[in-house]
User: Fold these one by one.
Assistant:
Number 1:
Amino acid sequence: MAHRFFVKPPVDSERVLLAGPEFHHLRNVLRLKPGDEVTLFDGTGREHAARVVQLGRSDVELNSLRTEAVDRELPRQAVVGVTLPKGDRQRWLVEKLVELGATRLVPLRTARSIVHPSASALARLRRTVIEASKQCGRNRLLEIDGTTSFQEFLASSPDSAYRWIADRAGAHRPAAAHARESGDTYVLIGPEGGLTDLERQAAAASGWRSIALGDRILRIETAAVVMMTLAGFGLLTASGNAP
């Protein structure tokens, strides 16, 4: 696979300019030269084969050679609501959710959550989305919402979606295997201190089901990766989990 670079959409002409972090990566890290071919993606599901034409002081000019729609997405929407962990664990979490095909990440504010990311922190995580997408070959970007309350997230999840909460005391366990079913999936991972009884009751009243991921206590990011993996393989469906 050719070196990949993100360019803000739309790419609607043969001449394309790269600046900022992407320019730095092309010129100073990879040290590409005029004539080298790369792949551009703009987050719309398209890839653009391009050739480096000229390196400037603050940008690089490329010539778009051809455009192709390349779909590497899951067959369903996968939304992850999670109370973010501390520090660098946030970046690791975002990387893995991108690789696993999550559609949207919603940072949650719960009764026991500690981390509430600032606007600048969210901007850094959105940059991580681009870097992870470059690496794994995704052509659509994981969306990261602003911090959302637990109740708002419950209310915004459609009744038509499969909705699951990771909970050690959950009434269900993952199915060993099950055929894919259509339908979006929403998953929710609480803080390290766990959800309160009131939050569990509110989720159950809204139609969410709880699922146990084993007898060991998982970190937030580990639970999120497990839940996203199950969602990606179509195991979090209405019939794919039985009490």
Note: The first strand starts at residue 4 and ends at 6.
Number 2:
Amino acid sequence: MLAHNKGPIASETEQGPDINLAFHLPLSSNTFGFNGFNSSWHLGGAINTAGDTSYAYTGLLVGHYFGRSNWFYELGGGLAVHDGNLHDSYNIDDRREMGSRLLFRYEIGLGYRFNPNYALQIVHDHISNAEIFDDDNNQGLDTYGVRFIYYF
């Protein structure tokens, strides 16, 4: 579950929690030169339960455990596509202006792995066009939340 449109740059125009579902495909531990780090390709989506902006995403994640503990962090980036508004002229329902359908996405997570199959993670996720596609309409969207992870 993610808190939708929250954070220091959020306008609170969109509401409701998001349901976040994702699939991660682990890559070799030395993929892209990240020796000692866990890397994965991921595909997922954030579905807004209040009918506001939802999005699907893909990209790469790199993670690492803190020493020999069960605590870990992940950093990721990639692309997202959303169903929200593009420009102010479309903004009749008070949704965020995203400027373009295709957006950049990053995420940061801190988690704890309880056993080989289960972990819990606190995550921050941001989508934006980075003022590359349309610098006048780039409100972006921040989400924060807790993610339950099942490894199989």
Note: The mean pLDDT is 84.
Number 3:
Amino acid sequence: MNIDSKALSGAVVHYVGYGSELSPRSGGKRFLDIYGSNAHTIITEVEKILREASSVPVDWKVHDLVSAGKMVRSRMHDAHPDLSEEALNAIEWKFTFDWR
């Protein structure tokens, strides 16, 4: 299944709960309700992007949490220019939450 960039961006936002949850989460029943039978395929793609974001090397001697989040967001934008601003914000939010 080929997932278009708009759908993938929305899936990233929904998967982590950006804008709807107090802290990032992973998928959940709501995600399954939204994506139905395509949920597994979409989850695979979203998790691939989130793993990529979490594997961006950060020099913690140079960066604090905020600047590291911005750097990761920038790298993910370079790697995935079709992701929406909201999806990139969701990735940054999850990254900084995971490292806090």
Note: Residues 69 and 92 are 5 Å apart (CA to CA).
Number 4:
Amino acid sequence: MIIALAGRRVDAPGAAAARFPLEHSAIVKEKIKALFVSLKPNALVTSAACGADLLALEAAGELGIQRSIVLPFNQQLFRSSSVVDRPGEWGSIYDQICKQAATEEGVQVSDYPQNDDETYRRSNIDILEEAKTLADKYDSTGLAAVIAWDGKPRDDGDITDHFRKEARSRGFSIHEVNTLTK
């Protein structure tokens, strides 16, 4: 089985609506880890933003699951725009995981424009395509998408919901991890 994962970043200070409070990080990581134990994947494919992505990458590393990171643009720019711009100690986790992943399934970096929602939609497709590529490599028939979120789209352009819909349309089994419950 290959898992593709996308989810919420931790909430920004003063966020209008709670979607992933920083204080839920440890329990969300444990929920993701328990799901991985249950699914027994060969590999995880995700981005590396603060919140769900990095927590999943940590959990996969602890379980010995190979990790593949898909980034929409260069690592340093991604770090500044999607990792260290929210509360928490995400920068050092990101640096360590990117270094480790480079020796596993690697870090795939695209050259999409920054600050464009279409960039993140394309990156969602890249994550799903990389999961399919790894499934072929491992002769694995199982493809699962894990969505770590609050369970509802923000609006019609919600990037996490886009990932969920794309994964479903491609035949991935869907598993959700709630970022609001303890």
Note: The helical segments are 25-39, 52-63, 75-82, 90-101, 117-137, 159-169.
